[in-house]
Amino acid sequence: MDSAVGSFALDMAYGFPLQRSDDPYVDLAERAVATINEAVLPGRFLVNVLPILKHLPEYIPGGGFHTTAKRWRKLQEDLRNVPFDKTVRDMVSKENRRGRKIFVFTYRLCRLRVLRHRLI
Fold it and tell me: For the purposes of burial, counting CB atoms within 10 Å of the CB of 83, is it exposed (0-12), middle (13-18) or buried (19 or more)?
């Protein structure tokens, strides 16, 4: 059920075709959301209780949260950038410029931004 909702959301936001299973974008979204769920668990990271620990180097015992945070940040950035970049690539591809109208939120937002810059 979650995959169906995720696929539908990706279709509405980015225009990606709905896939039955093993959608890489849905998988990326699920992994990114799982990191958020894990990060907010009380007591998961000692740095949440003692913020001064964020200044510890990675190699000192107790500083391993830096590595986890970098990995999770990369997932969050990928969730934001990978689908968007694919939509932009699709916008400029010859296949999508043959008069086919695209009713996708991201596409319309990008077009609006381009038109706004031309008017300025």
Answer: buried
As a whole number, mean pLDDT of residues 40-66 equals 81
Query: DSSP assignment of 17-43, as one string?
Result: PP-SS--HHHHHHHHHHHHHHHHTSTT
What pTM value is reported for the model?
0.71
CA 54 to centroid of chain Cα atoms:
25
pLDDT at 95: 58
> If you average pLDDT over residues 85-107, what whole number do you get?
66
Domain boundaries, the chain: 2-119
The pLDDT of residue 73 is 92
Rounded Cα gap, residues 112 and 116, in angstroms: 6
Q: Are 67 and 73 in contact (CB under 8 A)?
A: no
Q: How far is CA 106 from CA 28, 99, 113, in A?
A: 18, 18, 11
Q: Which residues contact 17 (CB under 8 A, 6 or more apart)?
A: 11
